[in-house]
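Q: Given only this backbone (203 positions), what sequence would you predict?
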């Protein structure tokens, strides 16, 4: 399965989220081009052996002028995540066994909004980046079992806002919507394509 390791270049979200709940909302809306991100894929190796795992660094950079919330989980096979990856334009491959998995979670009764935000969201100021290293396993990406030249690309799509509950919520938060409206930053929503990178799979 794919494994991710996260890195960040700024203060922890747990500290920031608690402070944000005490701030008032921004009064004026800004143009849509103030909320821009760029998603870049950087393979650690351009050539790998058949059956080898491909490690790819994923960087999400805020190229707009507003601070944004983005999903902390960039890529997850078992669950909803904004990034999808694909290997294309290579040679034909033989049919492969399917892949299936499942995951679930539950909020604790004492999880306030700040804690829930810290679990699933991170803050991305203008000019900063947030990223991870994704391990693309041949069991999930069977193209890596076939020698040839493959184009790696991805799509990053986010449709959720901060009110989305990613876990089962046995005790919904009172006044959750009002608290979210008081936050100075919004969740980034939209869809962008990543750059393309060519990978050589050799015998």
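A: Predicted residues:
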């Amino acid at each position: 399965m794919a494994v991710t390791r996260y890195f960040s270049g700024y203060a922890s979200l747990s500290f920031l989220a608690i402070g944000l709940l005490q701030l008032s909302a921004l009064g004026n809306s800004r143009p849509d081009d103030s909320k821009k991100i760029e998603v870049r894929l950087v393979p650690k190796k351009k050539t790998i052996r058949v059956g080898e795992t491909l490690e790819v660094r994923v960087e999400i950079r805020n190229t707009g002028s507003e601070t944004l919330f983005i999903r902390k989980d960039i890529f997850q096979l078992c669950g909803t995540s904004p990034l999808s990856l694909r290997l294309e334009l290579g040679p034909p491959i033989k049919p492969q066994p399917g892949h299936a998995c499942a995951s679930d979670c539950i909020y604790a009764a004492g999880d306030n909004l700040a804690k829930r935000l810290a679990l699933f969201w991170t803050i991305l100021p203008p000019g900063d980046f947030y990223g991870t290293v994704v391990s693309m396993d041949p069991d999930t990406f069977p193209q890596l079992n076939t020698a040839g030249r493959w184009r790696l690309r991805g799509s990053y799509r986010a449709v959720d806002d901060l009110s989305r509950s990613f876990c089962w919520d046995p005790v919904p938060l009172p006044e959750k919507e009002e608290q979210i409206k008081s936050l100075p930053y919004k969740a980034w929503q939209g869809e962008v394509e990543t750059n393309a990178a060519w990978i050589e799979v050799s015998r």
